[in-house]
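Q: My labmate handed me this sequence with no annotations at all. I'd like to see what the chain might look like in three dimensions before we decide whether it's worth expressing. Could you predict it?
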Amino acid sequence: MQNKFMRRPAPIVTLTTDFGWGDYYVGAMKGAILRIAPEAHLVDISHQIPSQDVLAAAFVLRHAAGEFPPGTVHLAVVDPGVGTRRRPLALHSNGHLWVGPDNGLFSFVLDRADTRIHEIARRDLGRPDPSSTFHGRDLFAPLAAHLCRGLDLAAVGPPVADPVRLAASAPCKSAGRIAGHVIHIDGFGNLVSNIAAADIAPWGPALCIRLGAHVLTQLCRTYADVEPGAPLALIGSAGLLEIAVNRGHAARQLGVQRCAALVVEKL
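A: Here is what I predict for the chain of 267 residues:
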């Protein structure tokens, strides 16, 4: 029997932005949440997203958000269109809630069968004198706080049937060949591709991986499987094929940037 004196776990709100740590923006957003929901547990996913880089934010959010328990509210503000006619959104998908601008940030959950999307139309839920340049503090943070306190998603505004989606980034597959590209470069310089482990699993570890002028012919298990300074390919923690340099920075050493083409062929 459950102890009647046990406290309910605090609602969780995660934050993902491109605000960095040098300004007051992150602190102001947290204050706006805690003023409405002082019991909320705030978790920073990242505030070091490259400025206005929606694709980078979508990648980080996708691979971090799924580790949180159901009921978590994910607040994401990477918003080049702040103050324009772009819609503010609140979503429910896979037991989680999502709040942010309608610019493709949440593309990875939009096609789930259980996803419900609503435009944030009730401005009475936000700051009474909102700034046209800081919707993170004045609109999204208060709405996230209300949702974590139990506000029904349908109460925020009308449903949305045509949310903005990022351009498709699935690799092109054919018999014995997969053509993809680099979709993320992490802080270590590792080059993360859009080719999933399941795409190449039937081929085993012997592969030909071409990235520009660089060719790798084996899939490693760890970074230390090669000598320091040597490049390698492995399946990273996101379940995606990545190119790395043991104890080095692959992006700099190989001269590769995001969106670079990557081809995997079966040997």
